[in-house]
Fold:
Amino acid sequence: MELKLLSLSICLDSLPTDVLLTLFKYLDRPSLGSVAQVCSRFRDISYSDCLWIEASRKALASNQLDPASLSRSQKIFSARDKVRLGKAWIKGDTYESLVVVQNTKFMPRLQLEAKRLWVAWGNRIWCHPRLPDGGIAKTTSRLLRGHADDSSKFVVSDGMVVSGGQDRSLCAWNADSGRFLFAKRYCHGGEISAVDVTARGAVIITGSRDKNVLVWNIREDPDRDALLPVPVHRTCVEDRVWSVAANDMGLLAVGTAGTKGVPPLRLYDLASGTNVLDMGTELKNGAGMLDMAWLSSSTFLACGYDTFTRLWDTRCRTYVRSWEEPYDDSVYCLATDKVNCLVTGTARSGRVRIWDMRSSGFLYMKHASPARQGYGQTSPVYSMAMDAANLYVALDQSLNHFGF
Structure:
């Protein structure tokens, strides 16, 4: 019997690589790991991407299928590493570190790029270089000034940093050099609470507490060799605007406060400003939409005051999936890989919840550590950003990093 086993192992080892790859495709992941421990040749074959590519496409958060999510990652992972990271996201196998601590309480906002993390603290926007392990350098490479009051919302897109503030100003800077591009003062009658950039940086959308949405075209100012925002049209949505998001088909989604009978979601044609669809009319009064993200040209996620995060489909004219926060907290912000992972940040206790959008229940929750431990030291999650291996969470006095 021992002679037969020895003969079989020698025979298996002598097979060509392409034949072994075909055989190994029938093994599950634990068996593949066992085979990898036999010898260096089997290990190299077992680590081949062709054996892991199908599983990597289904990996939670680390699949890197969406181009925008891929652009935020520091590197392109191998198929096997994607599967490994996906398991870590599912199990919550992570470490937490406090990157930045503030003495004053703010309502910070985050924007993530492959090499930089942007954070708005008060009326300034800080740029932190990212470290190779996903951490954030404590020193900043850039500091953007221009607002007289806090920055309420900002976007980093197409080489620009565009910010709307409580001072009712719209400001923009060059993302690479930090050069100030323009400032449009008092363009709204109230705080600019929502900003988005589309059409490859040629169009800016701003929403305000004054119940108006403004669409701007960015043009060159020949007299000053600078950029000039030119208002194209103004639309009254009849309620305070909490969020705006435009897709690649020229459709603008506006999240309102959802009071006094106004739908919490209103969709407009970006070019003309005409209202094409109202959604969420069946929701309770005050179900305002605080954050949203398009997944495709017809579907988007939105979360808000009524404790739900929903997947909306413009073709069905309603939501098709929903995920409820179990502790009855408002959902302040969301982050997603636009494939299968959803991360929600709530209004209390720095609570972050991880969801697999293929199921209805949450996987687990994490409490982001406050800047100072003690009784009553709790904060909402104001903003989040994620890539394939990292999650960044902004509380009122701290910036937290979860590495997977």
Q: What stands out?
A: The longest strand covers residues 226-236. The chain has a mean pLDDT of 92. The two ends are 46 Å apart (CA to CA).
